[in-house]
Write a structure and sequence with these properties.
With 186 residues, the chain is mainly α. The chain has one domain. Helices cover 66% and strands 3% of the residues. It has helices at residues 12-19, 23-36, 51-61, 85-94, 100-126, 131-157, 161-185, and strands spanning 76-78, 81-83. Strands 1-2 form a two-stranded antiparallel ribbon. The protein is elongated, with a radius of gyration of 22 Å.
């Protein structure tokens, strides 16, 4: 597997959106996200969640391994641009090694996703939501937690891949050397 190939999901627009992540931009996006919920009255026939429902969702969201069995969101909005989050995470997980630039982008993406997940928690905690809205926000938060955990493990385990790839390359070179040596003496 080649390590210098850029995954197909990380197109230039996605890369710019991730690289352009700043703490101020994250806060601005999170404020806009929080402001959107709970303003409109619920549609006819739908009820708002009760305080018990709210507490249950909050507790479920804080359970260990809440993200198990949950899909990473296919698309996620970063800096006003839709990014194929599921494909980005999948492609990065399939790579043997990450470059320093990719690691930095992953760290920025983790910060961005963490801020949005916290905003989802805040929305569940303090806004008037219908059952459908609350379940949707819960699913999004759990999916973001899954993406965050995958990305954190990815950066941690692929931190020393240059050492591993160098060692693997040397083993292959040594094996070729000994095979050539054996061919010469026989």
């Amino acid at each position: 597997m080649q390590t210098d190939v850029v995954p197909k999901a990380i197109d230039e627009q996605s890369r710019r959106a991730i690289q352009g992540t700043t703490p101020a931009g994250v806060l601005q996006d999170v404020r806009a996200l929080k402001k959107d919920y709970g303003k409109a009255p619920p549609p006819p026939g739908e009820r708002l969640i009760t305080p018990q429902d709210r507490k249950r969702l909050e507790l479920r969201l804080h359970r260990m391994l809440v993200w198990v069995g949950v899909m990473t969101p296919f698309e996620f909005e970063i800096g006003g641009k839709k990014v194929p989050l599921h494909e980005i995470v999948w492609d990065l997980l399939s790579k043997e090694c990450l470059t320093e630039e990719e690691k930095e982008n992953v760290r920025k993406l983790i910060v961005k996703l963490s801020a949005h997940e916290k905003a989802d928690e805040e929305i569940i905690h303090s806004h008037d939501l219908t059952e459908r809205e609350a379940k949707g926000i819960f699913r999004e938060a759990a999916g973001l937690l899954r993406a965050i955990m995958s990305l954190k493990s990815l950066v941690g385990e692929k931190e020393y891949c240059n050492v591993r790839s160098t060692a693997s390359r040397r083993r292959v070179e040594d094996a070729r050397y000994w095979l050539n040596f054996l061919k010469q003496i026989t």
